[in-house]
Amino acid sequence: MKKVGLLCGREFSFPPAFIERVKTLGAKDGVTAEFVKLGGTRMDEPAKYRVIVDRISHEVEYYRGYLKHAVLQGSYVINNPFWWTADDKYFNYSVAAKLGVAIPKTVLLPQKGYPKDVDINSESLHNLEYPIDWDALLDYVGRPAILKPYSGGGWKHVYKVHTKEELLAAYDQTAPYCMTLQEFIDFTQYVRCFTFGKTDILPVHYDPKDRRYIVDHKYLSAELGERVVKDAQTINLALGYEMNTIEFAIQDGVPYAIDFLNPAPDFERDRITAFYFEQVVDRMARLVIDRALSGDVSNSWPRWEEMVGIKAGTQDSGIAGFTGAPKLKTQAAAAQAQSASVQSAPSQSAPAQTAQKSPAAKPTRAPAAPDSTAAPASTPPPASPGKSKIK
Length: 391
Prior knowledge:
CATH architecture of the largest domain: 2-Layer Sandwich
Distance between the termini: 23 Å
Strand order of the largest sheet: 11-10-9-12-13
Strand content: 15-25%
Largest sheet: 5 strands, antiparallel
Order of helices and strands: EHEEHEHHEHEEHEEEEHEEHHHHH
Structural class: alpha+beta
């Protein structure tokens, strides 16, 4: 039997439903699922799981260390623990902007303070300019602006500021976190996309003020839905995430990607609605079964280096670049990771446009996943999610 392991924390509805769905759908191919159990990891310990779904290692260091070892031993981990450790939101904004995704103007700020157990004083910080020209930074991003951590999530330590005085008052509360100052998008629509396997995108009408998911299949126009799906695919292909949520704030018809470092997204039934819970459970189950049967480790690594055109001679030699990504299997697959193919390929309308009983949108070619010669823009509409292989 090929085993899928689930590593999770205080979740109640998703874990049992996911494990049961993997067992049901995977039985004919010899794939089963269970909770990962750990009690000290030996260096020579062989892989116990073909696939591991990680939803908690960002909070438990032992789990993150175990997952890196599991990759070394041959397990396919969703999401890649090496890149998740290295990633941050500011870098993501910069990468996405280079790939043609609309991103609000963003500034990375020095920290207000540092952890008490770290010996940092003025001599340690002689590379920093002082005083900071706060007016110039606000002029760059515009007023009002959003002050938020460069890493992290859960809407914590997020401030909307209108003046320099408000900015400084908020900034003074942020130690020891590194923060970003970002252009405020005065959105008229807001979309949170569940994403599975990089190219399977499920856009959802989301209310960020009430933090509420809304089942509304006609929320986006076909044209806007296509743009949202394409940009979400581009982001996931660049960053390598196979389980993620990507948020777009839409202003004047332009979808601005404002949050897409969510590798352990909320999957609880009571919060995401029963309709989207069913979608999440089914698509995640089909994703891990596919990876258990045919997943290649090179698929789980970020491809932003190839996509932004950084070559450094690594593709011909097979030596890893900045991210340590394994070389793609074929030159054709490598070419598909280039930014030109990602940015120019059309994509199918967002699945959230189509009600369960509505006719399916006509599929078109989407950016291909790095581990294949072609990939669907998304799985079919909610009524038939199992007819297309996830990439």
